[in-house]
Inverse folding.
């Protein structure tokens, strides 16, 4: 009866379940919804032919990304000035592309799904889900938004984040959904397997909860994160430049007790060489007060004619970090010149920012190595991992003003929290309009500023040393586990009939 009910208008139900998945992420943070809704889509594709599995996966993905990334329209239309039809087309194209990944999951899982429910729900569906999720975060520059694991930052599975990372938490969540599915549909043998998975997962989670993987090192630092609160529609107006500089300088002058001060991404809306005098005066102030300042600003290389999105360290230490992972169609356009000419006519940006080189060193402030990231980069854990375990603190500067009063800044903070948990280090996050926050090594927000206001978020943070299992090994253990699960499921029919050259029909 349950199966019949769920298969009626299955695509509609799949789209609704996908839309509901957004509620498991910030700012709603209903983390317990994720395993329930994942169970729904597992039930929906169970027993369906390949084409129907793909379609139901597609509609699940469509529902999730239509509700979870609608804020792209705000960025493109409200602040980018793109006409509504074109903005809708761009957003729609991204949503459809993301939904295709879930369609691929539904179809591919059917190719290796054995008849045995335990293998299908406890091996094939979870492993293919995570494989597709990982691919989505890498292929075509990657778009890791709405990876399942992020929504578990406030749930019990967060204890696994320092061990297996975000994709590992996604795998555990999918295994839990698979176990729930076999409890609903499977024969007794499969139900025993499902109960075993759930019981084992609960026991191991309890053992990991509260575990500390890193240790304090050196002296604690007093940090101050400066949020200008300048609206995106005015930030880059030439007449606002001097007001912006005065705002950040005045807020900074009051912070004479801070060891480290951090301004957000492109805090000064100008090129660094155009503001040499201003930057020099800041450097003299920092040296006189024995402070360090990190600020975001655009830089220009006269030798190559390249623009970069950069972080500068000013004070006793000087350093620079250039953003490595750029936002496609935001910071660069992977299109030929002919299409660029069209973009000019559509009032879309078309000048590329050049990515920074791999192998950049951590920034240094007050004798502490800092793992830097600019905006979107904190969505890619493996890139912050490049600076670990050397770095004692994580730093992210961002400008989420592009997304207005939507769910995007909350989702972005959630990913930054996950990076802190994976690395076992404090995350210092300074943004233009919010959400500026200090996150502790357990992924908890210890201080947070109000959105859309000029505020300073201050806290005492302790640099840490050591490497979590995820820092040591990255995603390879999780991806290897997925391969093993798929191979075991694929070979299962041969074990039942070893003389057969092909799996039984």
């Amino acid at each position: 009866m349950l199966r019949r009910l769920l298969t009626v208008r299955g695509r509609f139900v799949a789209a609704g379940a996908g839309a509901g998945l957004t509620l498991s992420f910030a700012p709603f943070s209903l983390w317990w919804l994720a395993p329930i809704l994942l169970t729904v889509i597992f039930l929906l594709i169970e027993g369906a032919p390949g084409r129907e599995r793909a379609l139901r996966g597609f509609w699940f993905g469509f529902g999730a990304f239509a509700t979870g990334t609608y804020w792209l329209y705000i960025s493109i239309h409200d602040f980018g000035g793109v006409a509504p039809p074109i903005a809708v087309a761009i957003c729609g194209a991204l949503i459809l592309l993301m939904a295709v990944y879930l369609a691929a999951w539904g179809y591919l899982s059917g190719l290796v799904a054995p008849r045995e429910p335990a293998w299908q729900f406890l091996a094939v569906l979870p492993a293919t889900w995570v494989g597709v999720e990982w691919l989505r975060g890498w292929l075509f520059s990657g778009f890791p938004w709405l990876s399942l694991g992020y929504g578990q930052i406030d749930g019990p599975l967060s204890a696994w984040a320092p061990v297996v990372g975000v994709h590992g938490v996604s795998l555990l969540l999918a295994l839990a959904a698979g176990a729930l599915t076999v409890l609903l549909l499977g024969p007794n043998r499969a139900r025993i397997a499902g109960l075993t998975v759930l019981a084992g997962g609960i026991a191991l989670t309890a053992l990991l909860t509260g575990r500390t993987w890193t240790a304090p090192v050196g002296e604690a630092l007093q940090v101050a994160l400066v949020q200008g609160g300048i609206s995106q529609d005015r930030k880059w107006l030439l007449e606002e430049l001097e007001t912006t500089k005065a705002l950040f300088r005045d807020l900074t002058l009051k912070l004479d007790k801070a060891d480290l001060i951090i301004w957000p991404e492109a805090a000064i809306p100008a090129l660094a060489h155009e503001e040499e005098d201003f930057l020099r005066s800041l450097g003299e102030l920092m040296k006189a007060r024995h402070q360090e300042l990190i600020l975001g600003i655009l830089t220009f290389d006269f030798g190559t004619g390249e623009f970069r999105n950069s972080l500068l360290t000013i004070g006793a230490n000087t350093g620079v970090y250039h953003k490595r992972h750029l936002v496609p169609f935001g910071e660069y356009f992977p299109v030929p010149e002919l299409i660029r000419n069209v973009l000019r006519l559509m009032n879309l940006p078309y000048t590329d920012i050049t990515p920074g080189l791999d192998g950049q060193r951590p920034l240094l402030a007050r004798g502490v190595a800092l793992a830097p990231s600019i905006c979107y980069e904190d969505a890619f854990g493996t890139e912050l991992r490049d600076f670990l375990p050397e770095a004692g603190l994580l730093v992210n500067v961002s400008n989420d003003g592009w997304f207005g009063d939507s769910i995007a800044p909350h989702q972005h903070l959630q990913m930054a929290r996950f990076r802190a948990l994976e690395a076992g280090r404090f995350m210092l996050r300074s943004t233009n309009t919010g959400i500026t926050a200090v996150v502790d090594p357990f992924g908890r927000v210890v201080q947070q500023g109000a959105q859309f206001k000029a505020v300073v978020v201050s806290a005492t943070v302790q640099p840490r040393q050591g490497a979590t299992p995820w820092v040591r090994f990255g995603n390879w253990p999780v991806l290897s586990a997925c391969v093993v699960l798929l191979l075991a499921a694929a070979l299962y029919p041969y074990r039942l009939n070893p003389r057969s050259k092909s799996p039984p029909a």
The chain has 17 helices and 14 strands. The mean pLDDT is 89.
